[in-house]
Amino acid sequence: MGEHATPITEATLQPHFTRLAAGDDTPIALNVHLPFCPSRCLTCDRVAVVEHQPDQQERYIATLQRELEMVARKLEHRRSVSRVHFGGGSPNHLSELALATLFSHIARLFDVSSGTEFSMELNPRRTSRAQLNFLKGLGIGQIKLEVRDVDANVQREIGRIQSLELLEDVISIAHGVNFESISMDYLLGLPGQTAESCEQSVEAICSLNPDSLTCLPFKRRESLFPHQIAVDSQHLPSLADRLFMFNSLQQGLTSAGYEWVGLNVFSKPDHELAVAQRQGTLALNVLGYGADEGLNVLGLGLGALGELPGLVVQNQTRLGTWHETVESGSLSAASAVISGDAEVLQRKVMRGLMCRKDISISSLTALQKKRWVDPLVSQGYVEEAATDFRLTELGRSMLPHVWMDSSPAFRAY
């Protein structure tokens, strides 16, 4: 996880589970990590495993079942979940049998209702009409296509080839299947990206007509992801180029009718994130932007992230260690960013700004204002009004490159 994480044990989590068990109305989400991938592109900054053997997938689902059972026991009684998210890796690299088995375990251990929101990240290159129908039948309502960029030259640079025709086909089929939301990502700062390629990509994205697009800055971290050493740093766009490209993206998408949500999401006006922003209920946690404030996220699986009050936690990131830990009867939590009351409030303030909410001046002490907000005001990112603080246009344009990240572990807090 990020630079501030410290090692933890299962005992660290026990007080949090005790509080969760006592609060029947506390909203809970499951963040299920399915790390398997058919191949790894050069920009990958996830906990991923390139594996094609069915027996390895079967063992993973079996171990994940044990982890789900342990977490369910920690909650002491059957709990309802408001959201279940399947991230990767490429979750749709798993077989239909493996996915169906996993869904049955979740339904057996937790209270899943018609109001439970199921979302899944998909590798477009592994997607078919039959698979999309299967996923919708399982209950998946929201899908996010992991695209990175639609420009052919950039795709060759990062080793992730997926033609515009393929993406058009996948999104067209997905619209026909009637998913509630079809979103995709776009990474800024990739090798080979230029102002011209970005403008062309924006046109292509608008033609694809996704319901929502998340724009994230790519950061090369070869010390953590050794395969990224193959990314030619000489071909990476500068910060000035990235700012220009983000501005082009923002102008192109808003001109096409998308609403700029939070710092880095562009959604159709009727999308739940755009609606949440207009209603003032937009929230941010380790799963990204959503409409549920105060959501407790339980991470399950290899390298999965979770978030509880005052705690952002990540599970074991080595597959063998994760298997051994869970199979021995222990939760696989390995590291965490632990926050005191001051840090929790600071995160609330920062996330409030990232959700473009006004921060009441009276809610902060003079010292908190001096430490957290005044530096942003001095840089022109935040302005002070009569009773509150709010993001400036400069802040909205600059902070996506400062506060956001393409790697889930580095945008978790």
Question: Mind sketching the topology for me?
Answer:
Layout: E1 6-7, H1 10-22, E2 28-33, E3 36-37, E4 49-50, H2 54-74, E5 83-87, H3 96-109, E6 117-122, H4 129-138, E7 142-145, H5 152-158, H6 164-177, E8 181-188, H7 195-208, E9 212-217, H8 239-255, E10 259-261, E11 265-267, H9 272-279, E12 283-285, E13 288-290, E14 296-300, E15 305-308, E16 311-315, H10 319-327, E17 333-338, H11 341-354, E18 359-360, H12 366-378, E19 382-384, E20 388-391, H13 393-403
Parallel strand pairs: 2-5, 2-14, 3-4, 5-6, 6-7, 7-8, 8-9
Antiparallel strand pairs: 1-17, 9-11, 10-11, 12-13, 15-16, 16-17, 18-20, 19-20
Q: Which descriptor suits the 3D outline?
A: globular
How many whole angstroms does the radius of gyration measure? 21 Å
Into which percentage range does the β-strand content fall? 15-25%
> Span between N and C termini?
10 Å
Low-confidence runs of at least 5 consecutive residues: none
How would you characterize this protein structure?
With 413 residues, the chain is an alpha/beta fold. It has 2 domains: 336 residues, TIM Barrel (Alpha-Beta Barrel); 60 residues, no CATH class. Helices cover 40% and strands 20% of the residues. It is built from 13 helices and 20 strands. The strands form 5 sheets. It has a 9-stranded mixed sheet, sandwiched between helices. Helix 2 runs parallel beside helix 3. The chain is globular.
